[in-house]
Amino acid sequence: xxxxxxxxxxDSIQTKSEFWDHVxxxxxxxxxxxxxxxxxxxxAASLIYSSLLGFPKYFGESDKAVNWAGFYIRGxxxxxxxISSQSPLPADQLLLxxxxxxxxxxxxxxxxxxxxxxxxxxxxxxxxxxVPDVEEYPGHIACDGxxxxxxxxxxxxxxxxxxxILGVLDLDCxxxxxxxxxxRVGLEKVAKLVVDSSDW
Length: 200
Ligand code: SME
Description:
GAF-like_dom_sf, 4 helices, binds methionine sulfoxide, L-methionine-(R)-S-oxide reductase activity, FRMsr_CS, Beta-Lactamase, Phosphatase_reg/MetRdx, six-stranded antiparallel beta sheet, alpha+beta, GAF domain-like protein, 6 strands
């Protein structure tokens, strides 16, 4: 099957829960075979974004769709250049990772007392945050003035008895109330698959 067909949604997919199960299945096939996080997160962002766009009734109104899907990753996890001299980025800021959608802010501070926005809150609290109306969320970082609602899921690695926070997976929507409980459950499973399928 051509890789792009991973984002095709069969007519049998009718609910959000079925949607996320389908995305999970397609993603596990896409990520099979290598563990580089840049590549895996790139295909995950594309699959989520393209699949959501291909499910018009998802947000209730076909002209109100997802407008951004992607990752912010802890600065110190980014690879350092082997060619030019470069210092690692600090761990107390998130840097823009693979995504689909319009350009977005590059850095998000997560240091204690400096954190701001939905991504930083999900990262610091280590829990998924669903925002029905971004205008109502204090400190929301508006990368795109068209965004109306948002969901952010933390990327958590459990390894050898240790729990490590790596970054976040962020989805934005042009409709109010774009995401709910089924999305939280589905997105957390997808985030776990991405984390466990990659080396950090
Ligand atoms: N709205 C996010 C910032 C990232 S963009 O939405 C892509 C926030 O408040 O953290």
